[in-house]
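[Discussion] Sanity-checking designs against the backbone

I'm trying to build intuition for which residues belong where. Below is a structure token string of 60 positions. I'd appreciate it if someone posts a full sequence so I can compare it with mine line by line.
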């Protein structure tokens, strides 16, 4: 089963790089709201990397 990173939502954009879209936010509340909205739109799952970064992954 392959997984694909669809997006990254972070409060620490300076520490993130890569080929997936990166959404930079300013607060923990915005972090959660953005990630869970993207989760629904992309039909994917949110995984927490640390307290300031969430990754949206589609599992197939």
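Best answer:
Here's mine. Compare freely.
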């Amino acid at each position: 089963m392959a997984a694909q990173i669809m997006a990254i939502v972070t409060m620490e954009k300076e520490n993130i790089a890569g080929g997936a879209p990166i959404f930079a936010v300013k607060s923990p509340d915005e972090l959660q709201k953005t990630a869970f909205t993207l989760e629904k739109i992309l039909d994917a799952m949110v995984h927490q990397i640390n307290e300031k970064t969430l990754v949206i992954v589609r599992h197939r």
